[in-house]
Amino acid sequence: MTERRLIELHVENFKSLRHVTLPLGPVSVLVGPNGAGKSNVLEVFRLLAGVVRTDLRPALEERGGFDRLVFRGGQERPGHIRIGIRGRWSPTAEDQQDEYALTVQGEPFAREETFRYGLQGRRSQTIVIRGETVTVTDLPAAQPGASEEIGIQPDSSGLSTLPRLSSHRFGSGPRQVAALLGSLRVFDVNVSSASLPSRVPKTGAEELWDDAANLAGFLLWLRNQHPDAWAQLQADAAEVLPQLESLDFAHPDGAAQSVVVVLRERGLLEPTQLLDASYGTIRLLSLLAMLHDPHPPALTCVEEIDHGLHPQALELLVERVREAGARSQFLIATHSPALVDRLKPEEIVVCERGDDGSSLIPAISTARIEEIVRASEGLPLGNLWFSGLLGGDL
Description:
Layout: E1 5-14, E2 17-23, E3 27-31, H1 38-54, H2 56-62, H3 66-69, E4 80-88, E5 98-105, E6 110-119, E7 123-130, E8 133-139, E9 146-149, H4 158-161, H5 167-170, H6 173-183, E10 185-187, H7 191-194, E11 198-199, H8 215-225, H9 227-240, E12 244-250, E13 258-265, E14 272-273, H10 279-291, E15 299-302, H11 312-324, E16 329-334, H12 337-340, E17 348-350, E18 352-353, E19 359-360, H13 366-375, H14 381-386
Parallel strand pairs: 3-16, 3-17, 10-15, 15-16
Antiparallel strand pairs: 1-2, 1-4, 4-5, 5-6, 6-7, 7-8, 8-9, 11-13, 12-13, 13-14, 18-19
Helix pairs in contact: 1-2, 1-6, 8-9, 10-11
């Protein structure tokens, strides 16, 4: 099967994303000022994951409903929100691409969805859902597409419904894109929760939670089940935390029902519980856990990845993100010129805000960034961004 990859995100009228088409590589780093729309791009993926997990109406209501999400700039409020993705998630040839698009209308409420994906033998299938009707078209096909009622509610989603129905009737495309989007991780470390004890993991794979609240349990599982990844994580932590000798675990309830992370540091007689460690240390260990996850989702989004970290940690962090990008695509937001200094032109997505309140993403092409780098005779990218030559002023 082709490796699961997202190639492009297209958004219309979602918050500040009036009309955005964003190419997605192994590592895409959003840079720009507050309010430029970086967080809104990540929120699009949160919404899609929510549609898979809870259905369309609950996912919208959790975020305040259509009226809170639709673009509010310009002369007239739009009547719809549209989100589309292109990528490869079905067993197709390398030169074929799959697509999914969701359009939501405000008043009266309505939704339309389109699935296009490859089948074996260079065939393809298109599913269009309007109201309670689904139309399936196979190409090449001798007969035109057939429509039928499938009992789906008008405010429900095919993304959450079709994967539960017969894969023979609708192919595997809906199930595959739903699995991709449902598994994506928008990683936002809750330092207070990550420092606390968590349950001891049971047998089987352990997933790192989006807020890292099960950090201790995940790291214990990593040590026991993936010793090579655990050894690399410890080495990375020691490289950035010079006083760290090793990471260890303790069971505060005495019955091995819960576990905490402890740090063994040079010069200290007693280990330090993670609860007593610094904010930056807890965030660093959480990020390293994410980057050394042996079973990552297809896409990992990270808000302000550099927050709370010493600049000396950024070199290692960027290196590990690139390595992990071979297994899980990364979409990252940052305000840090020091982190941008360590990026390649093709990894940067400059974000700006237009006069009508809409986000310009990307505000400048990769080719233009490369031209500016050449003309600057090799100045660091963070320096060029900070000076305003790349746009997206701080």
